[in-house]
Design goal:
The chain is α/β, with parallel strands linked by helices and 419 residues long. It folds into two domains: 28-277, Alpha-Beta Barrel (TIM Barrel); 278-409, Lyase, Ornithine Decarboxylase, Chain A, domain 1, CATH 2.40.37. 29% of the residues lie in helices and 23% in strands. It has twelve helices and 19 strands. Strands 1, 12, 13, 14, 15, 16, 17, 18 and 19 form a nine-stranded mixed sheet that branches. β4, α5 and β5 (112-115) form a beta-alpha-beta unit.
Length: 419
């Protein structure tokens, strides 16, 4: 089986003539269509909002597209907060081990603060003095999180969130200190490829909301399902259907909240991977081949451009552009040039014969692709290009230069000729 790229070889050659490889390429048409699908899937909930996980693709051009669809930003650091504020987008601040100044910045920007730990109840008062009228707390049920189709993840081994007892006490204290409305947040599994995860998570959180309301007498303003809706990275996987997911969350909402008269609770999500993953790809060129105990193809990208295969041994499908219909009768490791043997985009991958100069499209790199890049071996991160619906394209982040790499020495004269 194969995945179909959203770009042709001819278009890549046209782009590469202006912006040399490697580069991250985003599909504006796909992004917009997906944003519409998400909003439509949860249109039944009058307060619904997707707070896009900025960490996945922290580019203001991408965020500006999502803003057109009423989406906000899920932030977890000061620079992400700064970016969201600059774009005038609604903010949900879900962080951990949080400095006071970040709480202060979020509050001044009008964002919603999501407390990760029970000790943060004391920290937030020290940071802000007067607490905002609406706050959120993050829940961790502990143990192993299971669905009928298997184990999803292990919240008991995660550093995030509070127990139910801690949530109850946190809500009680925050209510006493003037908080009027409350939200509940949880992230219990990552990159799930099943329509079952959100509905089950929603049921668990809705039932928790009912218990907390009765125990503490608080108003539950929203339930934040966070992220975890994943991407079908492998071609034989069935992608999630957000329409089905939204409808099933609706069923659980009516089932749990209906009898309690809680039909005004808003639903929030914080999807990053699902929103952008399939609508971005890493385009790279074959520049070297090596024949030893295995067959290697070296490309001009490396793990600095896409870390997931190196650190997670994650699968990303690869298309040799222009050879989509050729037989996959060669087996290669596709490698970058880092001094790390883990710097491989594919291992023992069956692909068409690759010739030097061929362009490779590495799929599903639109989220946690560029954003996870780093500068080991002084490798410079690539440009980001947005492919518009009409076939035109624009650079939305330039490639780094050596001056960027040396920029943090601008206080010193020791290498002033490099700056």
């Amino acid at each position: 089986m194969a995945k179909k790229p959203f770009v042709t070889l001819d278009k890549v050659k046209e782009i590469a003539a202006v912006y040399p490889t490697p580069f991250h390429l985003y599909d504006e048409k796909g992004i917009r269509e997906n944003a519409k699908r998400v909003n439509e899937a949860f249109a039944w909930n009058k307060g619904f909002r997707e707070y896009f996980a900025v960490k996945a693709t922290p580019n203001p051009y991408i965020l500006s597209i999502l803003k057109e669809y009423g989406m906000g930003c899920d932030c977890s650091s000061l620079p992400e907060l700064m970016l969201a504020k600059e774009l005038d987008m609604p903010i949900m601040f879900s962080s951990n081990v949080t400095p006071y100044e970040e709480y202060q910045f979020c509050a001044e920007a009008g964002g919603i603060i999501n407390l990760d730990d029970f000790t943060d109840v004391e920290h937030i008062e020290k940071a802000l003095g007067t607490l905002p009228e609406i706050m959120c707390c993050r829940y961790n049920p502990g143990g192993v999180y299971k669905l009928t189709n298997g184990i999803m993840d292990n919240p008991g081994d995660a550093k995030y969130g509070m127990s139910e007892a801690q949530m109850t006490e946190a809500f009680r204290i925050l209510k006493e200190k003037g908080v009027k409305k409350f939200g509940i947040h949880a992230f219990l599994a990552s990159n799930t490829v099943t329509n079952d995860y959100y509905p089950q998570l929603a049921k668990d959180l809705f039932e928790l909301a009912v218990r907390l309301k009765k125990a503490v007498g608080v108003e539950i303003a929203f339930i934040n399902l966070s992220g975890g809706v994943g991407v079908a990275y492998k071609p034989d996987q069935t992608p999630n259907d957000i329409t089905v997911i939204g409808a099933r969350v609706h069923e659980v909402y009516d089932e749990v909240f209906g009898p309690e008269g809680m039909d005004d609770v808003a639903i929030y999500t914080e999807m990053g991977r699902y929103m952008l993953g399939p609508y971005g790809g890493l385009v790279t060129k074959a520049i070297h081949e090596k024949h030893i105990y295995k067959e290697y193809i070296g490309v001009d990208a490396c793990a600095a451009n896409l870390m997931r295969p190196a650190i997670y041994d994650a699968y990303h499908h690869i298309t040799v552009l222009g050879k989509e219909d050729a037989p996959c009768d060669h087996v290669y490791d596709i490698t970058g040039s880092l001094c790390e043997n883990s710097d491989k985009f594919a291992k023992d991958r069956a692909l068409p014969k690759i010739d030097m100069g061929d362009y490779l499209f590495i799929h599903d790199a639109g989220a946690h692709g560029y954003s996870m890049g780093y500068q080991y071996n002084a490798k410079l991160r690539s440009a980001e290009i947005l492919l518009h619906e009409d076939g035109t394209f624009d650079m939305i982040r330039r490639a780094e230069t050596p001056k960027d790499y040396f920029a943090t020495f601008d206080f010193s004269d020791i290498i002033k000729n490099l700056l």
